[in-house]
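Input:
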Amino acid sequence: MNRVLRVNPIACDAHGVCADLLPEMVTLDPWGYPVIAPEPVPAELDEHARRAVASCPTLALRLDRERSPRHTS
Amino acid sequence: MTAVRSAGAPGHHLPPGQLPRLVAPGAPLGLQAHADRYGPLPAQPARPARPALAAGPAGLIAAVERAGLTGRGGAAFPTARKMRAVTSAARSGRGRRRGGAVLVANGCESEPASGKDAILLRQSPHLVLDGIALAAAAVGAASAYLCVDGADPARADRLVAAVAERQQAGLPGPPVRVVELPGGYVASEESALVNFLNGGRAVPVYVPPRPFDRGVGGQPTLVSNVETLAHLALIGRYGPDWFAAVGTRAAPGSALVTVGGAVSRPGVYEIGLGLSAGELIELAGGAAEPLQAILAGGYFGGWLPLPGAAAVPVSPPGLRSAGASFGAGVLMALPAACCGLAETARVLRYLAGQSAGQCGPCTFGLPAIADALAHIAWQGRDERAAEWLSSLLPLVDKRGACHLPDGAVALVASALRVFADDLRQHLTRGPCPDAARPPLLPVPRRLARPAPGQGGPVVSQGGRP
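Output:
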């Protein structure tokens, strides 16, 4: 199943671990917060993505099934 | 128990094409005057006078769906879909207690330029309370909250009195608690309201779980704008065809709009959706001086250039396809002798200050955008300033838990588009003289807000183009 990376922007404290562990999919904005590639995580990066999720100090990074959790109402 | 005399036969109702529907001119309607104007609430379950209402609570949701009612709080989400999400969450026992649901009526109106919810709650409190009773029955909510801005304590007192009046008269409906919210732009965002009612701060939370799944007290919660509920009360009485007798096929029904800026009679008006922006400006007394643009949708909306924008239909789909939004129905007219960049810069400063400070891109990005725009508006002579500003927008867009950053970015993007000529002049020769003009758009300095659109007349006009 396709998985996408998402960050809980309230929980994120800009530690930047995700960008270190998964530079292929995560870059940092000028304030140090992760900008995450919207594409599904490719199979060859799956393990790295899992490690990035597990290493986030604030547990802000998640691997989600590919559906938008953003509320629109 | 005081019985409320119901006027006329059960079929008594307002003529379908007549506006205003929601806000009668004159004094605020007490319970008796309200019953005289609108007739009795349909019983639950409704008598099969109209097929759409025949099936009781489920019938109301079907009627709301057929009517095409969308949320009037800003997002224009289909109301029936929201109601169905709550009922199915309640039925599947996703709440803590199986089957229960909660209704939250949102009357906080945190959009500084909007005044329509305040006028609705003052003039027609019982229409909103009718809507609460009907919607609560339809989604199976045993309790309801009516949330208003705490800046005006008299408003809450009047609503508490109206709730008590209904209890004494023995009207059906769940107990309604009137709750005063602290001010602030994001305090009335759906998840912020629910968080506050659960004992937390009135700041947005990261969803999911969404309120319709697990909201107040962990129960499936219907959060609905007070104007939406007032329309729902009329759909419950008169049916979907009556509702859609004004408006357009794509945007049926009427809506309250707040018209401000350089018009002769600023105020709150009820229009059939789809009335053109030009007609709405005429309705508000016409332009008070030559105009260059309108801001549609409030501070989450967008600028549209005149004269072209005069033909744009004032409705959610009409404004969306023009590059703005309907939002909570705010339309501000910008005179030619005003600097749109300076106006937008002040609004951005305000929005940056309204960030709850929870999400990094919003906490740091909005002030950076506000600084960059202020630099262009009041300093200028810097060819790279626009490039810097444009590079900041995607770094903030859609990167918060709520839609504050997205709305602010859309507003700035529309300003750069619509005031492109001004922008070039600011960048090359410095600020235009109009940048020093006093502010047109209301920007609250503190949490207490001025009363926008105050004292404006409530008149109305059908809007089938």
